[in-house]
Amino acid sequence: MINPMDLLRSNLSRVRIPEPTNRIFKQECCISFDTPKSEGGLFIDLNSFLAYGKDCVGWNYEKTGDPVYLHIKQTRKLVPEDRPSKKPTLLAIGIEGGFDNSEVEYEETHSIVILPDYVTLPFPSVELPEKVRLAVDAILMAEGAERKEQVAAWTADTKLVSAYAMNLQQIDNGVIVPPSGWKCAKCDKRDNLWLNLTDGMMLCGRKNWDGTGGNNHAMEHYKETGYPLAVKLGTITADLEGAESAACSDVFSYPEDDAVLDPLLAQHLAFFGIDFSSLKKTEMTTAEREIDQNTNFDWNRIQESGQGVEPLFGPGYTGLVNLGNSCYLAATMQVVFSTRCFCSRYYMNQNLKLAFDTAPADPTVDLNMQLTKLAHGLLSGKYSVPALKKDDNANAVTATDTKQEGIPPRMFKSVIAASHPEFSSMRQQDALEFFLHFVDQVERAHAGKPELDPTKSFKFGIEDRFSCSSGKVAYNRRLDYILSLNIPLHEATNKEELAAFNILKAQKTSEGKDVSADEIVRPRVPLESCLATFSAPEEIHDFYSTALKAKTTAIKTTGLTSFPDYLVLHMRKFVMEAGWVPKKLDVYIDVPDIIDISHMRSRGLQPEEELLPEGPGDEVESNKPVANEEIVAQLVSMGFNYLHCQKAAINTSNSGVEEAMNWLLSHMDDPDIDAPLSQGAQCATVDQSKLDTLISFGFQEEIARKALKASGGDIEKATDWIFNNPDASAASDMDATTSSTAQTPADAGLTDGGGKYRLFGIVSHMGTSTQCGHYVAHIVKDGRWVIFNDDKVGASVNPPKEMGYLYFFERINS
């Protein structure tokens, strides 16, 4: 038998000494959630510096042939039983001199392991080859990639107070900034505008490397004047008191060349007529005071505090560790992996080895691998065990009754957020935006295999019908993953109680008293009323009728062309108030366990109906409504691109700012989002040479023609468009003049069935804004409601059905 040291020397060519730029994983397996504390410890590949658990390290050897590993094992540290308990000298927990934090302490051992026979050599040892000793020392001294990425995300959000903020000189030149309709003073740019805090000039930002962005007028103004600070219009929030709150707004210091904090931002804005501090004060004396008083109730109700929740462990009951403001991700993914489609795709039909074998060299950056890892972590039950804690006896370790360790979704978050600047930060995010981003990324990952795509179980078609005064009709179709519902407060079922409460509130206010939390009455609106509002007829002004060859008023009705396997309802609880300040509606939604939306199915073009004629391209841009400039201006003022805002207004039939914003957020990554609204004759007839090029790639002529139109004639973008729209066909243009009762190619591949649904999941939000607060999920598991509050999982006693932000329904198959 070969000597272990000789075996190691024969494999030195597969050992590398890590360089400062190498990512080193040493806290968690890249295929499973095993750690050094796990029974088999953790194996770090001394060639790739990736970490593997005991069950997975053999797969890596088979795939890569890398034989040499650093084995890290952490075992519980034994404490001498006769050691006296130390008296704390510091008001701190878990540090030397502080209080004992009751957490189990571990000691770490290391060894060198050579596969495939798991030959083991001790470390440290002077007998080991120098190359191995240097490699291991570098790994042990390095900060793990998992930790480094998390710290980097936190550090990226840290801003310093500008040296120019406290003594900023402002020029009284009579400038008053209006609440909307902003435009660069030196060009026609209406987005990416910056307000100079010295003289009130509104100018566009920097030009990006690809030609997008502004025209550098704000920067040029600084070079001419030396005025140091500017704030980006559209990022200003009402909460501007103090440096911490001012971090919400984008303030840039040109001499410091960095984003900074301006503790006096409210004062500096007020100089130019933007009186956000007084707006906040007014709000705090009215609705916000009620919300503040009722915050504790919200948190206790949604988290079921004091309800004696029974902890649950086992398959499907695994908690997710909060990585720092990651509850939006945890709540959403718990519900997503409670669906059959995602459970089948990433757990039942794909094991960890299969996902690893098909992954690239670095599985930590592969979405399929990390989704499979997350699915197995959540659903297998392997990690859903009670956490350990130290007992009063020195060496007694017991399982806690209420808490589990949970699994940290670090690698998944890193992959899913890689292309998104907000989700890759450590700030709180909107669960709705994350869900839409998530399904978009998964759908893109299945561009070549749409039959495996689990997100199609959420996708459905929406059809808008427009009837103009000519008696003719037009249809507009689109696809979506969520049904976003307005909340009609006038449909509240407890109007008498609300009236009595308002009288009580007025009386207490006149007496200088506050209304107590248990006295507050909230409107109760039935979910049926929210669904009815979605389908209700609506007047659309400035609708261009190709029959009348003039603008007129049309009646719009909306229905669904298909019913998905899973229906996600988004309650629009956040509305825009004066000054574009988001406010959360203080309302309850009465949601039944079973709903029937069969009446919401659209009928399509009827035999007795006549379509509006297609207008000549030069006379009218479209039979869709012209973009409402008020809606566009409001969206632009929030920092969105002007063209994108026009498309959002048109595609939501000028229904309102919220509707347009929701459309924008879910279509930001569309391949044709930057295509001009109307390209005239240039778009009507595509370049034949470009068309021939695409046809030579093997694409059908009509598909290629459509792709070139959608991408403005750019071959590369057209190719991307075809790959990102695998179901596209020449007949599937969802314009406002073509429709039929038959299923169009745009609807082909969508799941469909009856309209009866059963509620199975709720994502609730606590806090005054989607950008702060906390998210919790409640899910029906094994016939009972279960609460998933980060790493805490338990049987729900009283699920807060009336307080949901997102509701997940599963279709009942007859």
TrEMBL record:
InterPro entries: Papain-like_cys_pep_sf, Peptidase_C19_UCH, Ub_carboxyl-term_hydrolase, UBA, UBA-like_sf, Ubiquitinyl_hydrolase, UBP13_Znf-UBP_var, USP. Belongs to the peptidase C19 family. It comes from Xanthoceras sorbifolium. Its EC number is 3.4.19.12. It holds the Pfam family UCH. Residues 318-812 form the USP domain. The lineage of its organism: Eukaryota, Viridiplantae, Streptophyta, Embryophyta, Tracheophyta. It comes from the Eukaryota. SMART domains: UBA, ZnF_UBP. The keyword Nucleus does not apply. It is an enzyme of class 3 (hydrolase). Gene3D superfamilies: Cysteine proteinases (3.90.70.10), DNA helicase RuvA subunit, C-terminal domain (1.10.8.10), Zinc/RING finger domain, C3HC4 (zinc finger) (3.30.40.10). This is Ubiquitin carboxyl-terminal hydrolase.
